[in-house]
Amino acid sequence: MARKSGGKKTIIIGGGHNGLVCAAYLAKAGREVEVLEKRPVLGGAAVTQEFFPGFRNSVCSYTVSLLHPKIIAELNLHRHGLRIVSRRVNNFLPLANGESFTAIAGELAAEVRRFSGKDEQALYEYDGFLAAVMPVIKEIMLMKPPDLESAGFSDLLSLFRLSRHFSTLSRQQKQFLFTLFSRSAGEILDDFFETPALKALFGFDAIVGNFVSPYTPGNGYNLLHHLLGEVNGESGRWGHAIGGMGAISDAIAAEGRLYGVRYHTNSAVSRIIVEDGRVKGVITEDDKLFEADVVVANINPALLFLSLLDEDCVPEELKTHFRQYKCGSGAFRLNVALSGLPVYAGRTSAHWQEAGIIIAPSLDYMDKAWQSARNAGWSEQPVVEMLIPSLVDDSLAPSGSHVASLFCQHFSPALGQQWQTSKEAAIADIIAAVENVFPGFSQLILGIQSLSPWDLEQEFSLVSGDIFHGRLSLEQLFTARPAIGLAQYNMPLKGLYLCGSGAHPGGGVSGLPGHHAARAILN
Predict the structure, then answer these.
(1) pLDDT, tens digit, for every residue of 4-30?
(2) pLDDT tens across 417-464, in order?
(3) Would you say 64 and 239 are in contact if contact means Cβ atoms under 8 Å apart?
(4) Which of 114, 181, 331, 370 is deepest in the core (most CB within 10 A)?
(5) So what's the pLDDT on residue 474?
(6) Which residues, 6+ apart, have CB-to-CB distance to 314 below 8 Å?
C-alpha cells in the first residue's frame, strides 16, 4: 500500500528549469505546490556539478541566451544571485591553413568582406529578412497556441493578433518566413551565400541538438530558434551564467521557496493516479503517494503518455501519435578538466578565448558527419562546439586550470545501450577533432565527464538524448506541439498539464513553457 503525504495540491513532475518556473508562478499566485525530481539535485539539464575534484561545470546545457527577460524580471532572478556575462565574440571557426572566421557582435559584415564582397551585400539582405520576421516569431513564442480542434473566442483573438503582425511583412518577407519552415537550412544558405565558413556559422544553429543534416528539409526554422534570445538587453547575444547553468535553476528555485514551494529530490514518479477522467495525484518509485488536484508534467510528452499513465487512460490515437513522436538529438556532451589553457594552432588570435569555437568549417563537413553517424553510429570527424567558461568564471576551476565544455554531434541515438561499449572510441574521435585545432589538448586533460545520447536518456530522462523534448520541425511546432489539440498546456485528463520543452515554444533554457503552463492553470 502506498504511503500517503499531505492533502490535495499541485504536483510538478520534474525539477528542471521549466518545472521550477511553473512552480514559482503558481506559488506566487497562492497555490500550494510541490516539485518531485528524480535526481539528487534540482535543475534537470540546467545544472552545475563537480565532475572532477576541484572542477565544476554546467553538466548539459552550457550557454545562455533564450532565458526570457520577462521571467528574469518577474521571478527576481538577479536578486537571487543570477549574474550573466555576455560573450563579445559569438563564434569562432578555425579554418584550413591557419585561417579563421570570427563572428563579433556588430562586426560580422567586416569579417565577411575579407572572404567575399558579394556575400557582404547578401548578408545585409539576409539580416534584413531575419530582422523582419523575428518579431513575428517572438510574438508567437509568447502566445498560447490556438486550439485547432475547437477554437473559441480567445483562440480566434490569438489568430487575429498573429495575422496583424504577419500582415506588416512585405510579400518577400512573408515568403522568406514560409521558406524557413519548409526548406532545409543548407538550401536556404546556399541560395544566399558563397563563403563556406559563413554558411557553416549560420548552419550550425540548424543542427544543434538536432540529429539531421543541414540539408534535411524542414530544418530551416532552426536558423531562427537560436537567434531569438538576448543577454542583458542585447538581442542575438550569448552569455555565461556565473556559477554555470545551475545558477539559473538555483535562482528560480529560491524564488519559489520564498512562496512556499516544497522540493523533493530523489523522488522519481512511477505513475499518475487517475479516477473518473481526473488526476488524483502521483505515486513515486519508493511507493509514496502525493495527492493533488493538479499534476503538471515537466517531462517529454512521450514519457507522459506512454509511461506514467495507465493504458486505459490514453486514447489509442494518442498512443500511436507519441510512439511516432520524433525525438533524438544525436548530441554527445563532454566536460573536460584541463591543467592549463589550450594553445591555438592557427595564426595568432585571442578571439577564440571569448567565443564558442565551432569545429565544422562547412555545411559539407556537417552533412558528412551526419551521414557517417547514420551509417556507423557516430562520426569520426564530429561537429564540435567548445567553450572554456573558466576564462570568465574563475569559480569553476582551480587557479591556473580550466574547464572546457564540448557539445558534440553527430552521435546516433539509435545505438541505445550500445553506447556503453562505444563511448571510449567516440570520445577519442572527439578529442582528436579538438587536437587538430589545439595541439597538445589531450596532454592537458585531467579528467572527463562524458554523456552519450544513452546517458542523457538514463540520467536526465531525455528520450533518445533529445535536449528539446521533441524535434523542432513544423509538424511538432506551435499548434501541433506536442500534438494538435494538446498545444494549450492542458492535457485530455482533467487537472493534467504539460510544462516542459515538449510544449510550445519548445526547447532551450527559455522558461517560457513553464511560464505559459502556469498561466493556463491560473486562467
Answers:
(1) 544 459 999 999 999 999 999 999 999
(2) 999 999 999 999 999 999 999 999 999 999 999 999 999 999 999 999
(3) yes
(4) 331
(5) 83
(6) 305, 306
> Would you list the domain boundaries of the chain?
3-46+66-83+242-326+468-522, 108-235, 327-463
Sequence letter at residue 370 = W
Tally of CB atoms within 10 A around 185: 31
The sign one gets for the Cα dihedral 336, 339, 341, 344 is negative
Bridging pattern class, strands 234-235 and 230-231: antiparallel
CATH class of the domain at 3-46+66-83+242-326+468-522: alpha beta
The model's pLDDT over 137-155, given as tens digits with 9 standing for 90+, comes to: 888 888 888 887 766 666 6
The length of the chain, given as a count of residues = 523
| Residue at 86: amino acid letter | S
DSSP, residue by residue, 38-96: SSSSSBTTS-EEEEETTEEEESS---BS-S-HHHHHHTTTTTTT--EEE-SEEEEEE-G
Instruction: Indicate the helix (H) or strand (E) that contains 303.
Output: helix 301-303
Q: Are 146 and 158 in contact (CB under 8 A)?
A: yes
**Rounded to an integer, what distance in angstroms lies between the CA atom of residue 213 and that of residue 375?**
13
Share of the chain above pLDDT 70, in %: 96
Q: 181: which 3 cell numbers?
A: 519552415
Amino acid identity of residue 233, one-letter, is G
